[in-house]
Amino acid sequence: MKYLMFVCTDTEPDADPTAAPDIDEWVAERDGKGQRLMGSVLGPASAATTVRVRDGELLLSDGPFAETKEVIVGFDLLECADLDEAIEVARAHPMAYSGRLELRPLVDLD
């Protein structure tokens, strides 16, 4: 099953960020196991463009649409047997210590 893992900042990071694993080791291990299909760091929220259409009119806004202190800073596309495995993959990610990770299953539309 595929999961999209949003990598987000957090206003309440772990008190000891030195306990976080190394990101390069996390990526190498997940890639080696076939659990991480792809991933990337995102540009800053200030570079975002929000696109909406209302009553047929194109509306563009600079920056993220949501008014929040937490922002999405990256993502990983995971291939896991089930949610439990995806949780274990997320648990080992460095941003689980200083940010937060949101897992969402991809929906098969077929």
Automatic annotation (TrEMBL):
<protein>
    <submittedName>
        <fullName>Uncharacterized conserved protein</fullName>
    </submittedName>
</protein>
<comment type="similarity">
    <text>Belongs to the YciI family.</text>
</comment>
<dbReference type="InterPro" id="IPR005545">
    <property type="entry name" value="YCII"/>
</dbReference>
<dbReference type="Pfam" id="PF03795">
    <property type="entry name" value="YCII"/>
</dbReference>
<dbReference type="InterPro" id="IPR011008">
    <property type="entry name" value="Dimeric_a/b-barrel"/>
</dbReference>
<feature type="domain" description="YCII-related">
    <location>
        <begin position="8"/>
        <end position="108"/>
    </location>
</feature>
